[in-house]
Amino acid sequence: MPHWLDLMLQSLGPLLAAGIRFTVPLTLITFVLGLALGLVLALLRLFAPRPIAALAWAYIWIFRGTPLLVQLFVIFYGLPSAGILIDAFPAAVIGFTLNVGAYTSEIVRAAIASLPKGQWEAAYSIGMTPVQAMRRTVLPQAARVAVPPLSNSFISLVKDTSLAAAITVPELFQSAQRIVAVTYEPLILYIEVALIYLVLSSILSLLQSWLERRFGRYGGFLEARA
To answer: What stretch of H or E contains 212?
Structure first.
């Protein structure tokens, strides 16, 4: 067996274990929390009084305008100088959540704003309150519009979690770095990590296509009812 193939097979187990223990949970937790934060920010920008909407805009401006790696360093390495100590994994969750929330908020806001005003008027005409109209009519249709860009954000997040290695989270990429430190075979190990990320991204792309088809049928059902 070639040396490179033997090394890849021996390292595959530890790499997958690191991915399952840290990369996958970090991705799922931060995306769910970031999506919830993004929805709140989007609603504040669309419907809150101007001062509050301005604060939401400022938050989005800051986190979209600064590098994610810098944000992680501020949280993990910077806050301890102010007496705030956060372990590596929680710091990564906070950093990624705040960053994802800023990006998803713009996706959700654009999806809601793209719906015609007639949808609101139709909901009001059958006696719905603004909250009911948002929950029963607007958000389901906005979700169909938002699925493709949100799916792209999720796939990007899977790859961006490799930045957590910079704050000592032992995820997939840092696990590869540790193996490289022992084997002195960076090319083989980093190519293997790239292939693992490629497989994950390909699987998620297939899932994205399935979701788009499903939401497309749901959208057609809503339009037929209208």
So the answer is: helix 186-225
**Range 58-82 burial, b when 16+ CB lie within 10 A, else e:** ebbeebeeeebeebbbebbeeeeee
Contacts 24+ apart (CB under 8 A), 77-83: 77/167
pTM of the model: 0.90
- Walk me through the domains of the chain, giving residue ranges and CATH numbers: 3-225 (1.10.3720.10)
Q: Which two tokens stand for residue 190?
A: 């980093």
Neighbours of 125 (CB within 10 A): 9
Q: How far is CA 196 from CA 120, 187, 206, in A?
A: 45, 14, 16
225: amino acid identity, one letter: R
3-state secondary structure of 67: coil
Q: In a 10 Å sphere around its CB, with 0-12 CB exposed, 13-18 middle and 19+ buried, how is residue 86 labelled?
A: middle
pLDDT digits (tens, 9 = 90+) for 106-123: 999 999 998 888 888 888
